[in-house]
Amino acid sequence: MADDLDAFQPLHRPDASAPLRGLTVLVLEDSRFASDALRLMCLRSGARVRRADCLRSAERHLSSYRPSVIIVDLGLPDGSGLDLIRRLGSLVPRVPVVLATSGDPMLASAACGAGAQGFLCKPIESLAAFQSAVIKALPRHARTDRNTMRDVVIRPDSMALREDLAQADVYLASGVTGSRLDYVAQFLAGLGRSARDRDLQHAAEALRGLSPAETAARVDVVRGLVSARLCAGD
């Protein structure tokens, strides 16, 4: 397996039109909407990109190759991204750059304490801010000729948003409770934040910490909002 320096040896040098050329980015993100934004940013920047949607999938990727950059969502269906960030520090060869992402800016210090070199707060929309975060986290020798492009706002595919909403509706319809319901609540709250949908965000945030009697009524409210948004796209 290649060593750390090999991760930064592009066949063609990065330039103003492709400042992240030569990098392979693994995006660990359960939301298709959020991961599509990151995919577009990587491609616009000249980087290669792969996606994993859970910790288990990320471990499979990492067992066969080392990306030069991994972006880890902190709220995942099978655990916390913080646990993976801690484990990445002991891998040999290591992943040179680890960035964390979340809609909760209060988690930035926890992510950096676990070993991340940077934090991307959702929604991630600015191409220049994304490129700057990646370049800043690179080893010094790998920053040469890498400068951010003129800033643009990246808009992910609306179909990815619908897929996320449909998946969340399946979860809610199955009668999830406890920690699983907490996961769905944070997933939908993050989706609402990324889509600038405050009603959905706030309704999802209100799902957490409820008694069993309160939960059923609140889930019905959230499902109604999800259904309305799915119908609006038909």
From TrEMBL:
InterPro entries: Bact_response_regulator, CheY-like_superfamily, Sig_transdc_resp-reg_receiver
Location of 4-aspartylphosphate modifications: D73
Keywords: Phosphoprotein
Cited PROSITE patterns: RESPONSE_REGULATORY (PS50110)
Chain ranges of the Response regulatory domain: 24-137
Organism domain of life: Bacteria
Protein name listed in UniProt: Response regulator
UniProt organism field: Albidovulum marisflavi
Lineage: Bacteria, Pseudomonadati, Pseudomonadota, Alphaproteobacteria, Rhodobacterales
